[in-house]
Amino acid sequence: MDVVIYFKEEDTKLCGYVEGEIDTFTASVLREELEAVKIREGLEIYLDLSKVHYMDSTGLGVFVAFYKRALREKGKVKLTGLSKRLQRLFVITGLSELMDIETDEKVELSNEGI
To answer: How does DSSP classify residue 101?
Structure first.
């Protein structure tokens, strides 16, 4: 499966829509698309992950690098539309405490299913 990302910009907001699976094989495509984003001070970037079906640690690394770059360049990044599975991935890694993630409900770390 591939990963697709497209953007829609309006004023000081940039909305990115990510679809597919983000893994070792597809992360480079996502990385290139995110590196091409011109971040300027005050730009609010929303990345909708509602159509991401799978993500591994390579994908997490891509988002962390983009998030750090946006902070350096005084932009803001918010991840939205994460499935419970993706939310759990961010919680387990501790990234949910560092990154701005919008969720409908908070996913707690538990021993269930481990």
So the answer is: B
Tens digits of per-residue pLDDT, 19-72?
999 999 999 999 999 999 999 999 999 999 999 999 999 999 999 999 999 999
CATH number, domain of 28, equals: 3.30.750.24
The answer to whether 17 touches 6, Cβ cutoff 8 Å, is: yes
Residues forming a β-bridge with 45? 14, 77
Could you tell me what percent of the chain has a pLDDT over 70?
Answer: 89
Average confidence score pLDDT of the chain: 90
Q: What's the domain range around 77?
A: 3-97
C-alpha 82/C-alpha 52 separation (Å) is 8
Cα 58 to Cα 25: distance, rounded to the nearest angstrom? 9
For residue 106, being part of any structural domain is answered with no
Q: Specify if 108 maps to a domain.
A: no
Report the candidate in 7, 2, 36 with the shortest Cα–Cα distance to residue 19: 2
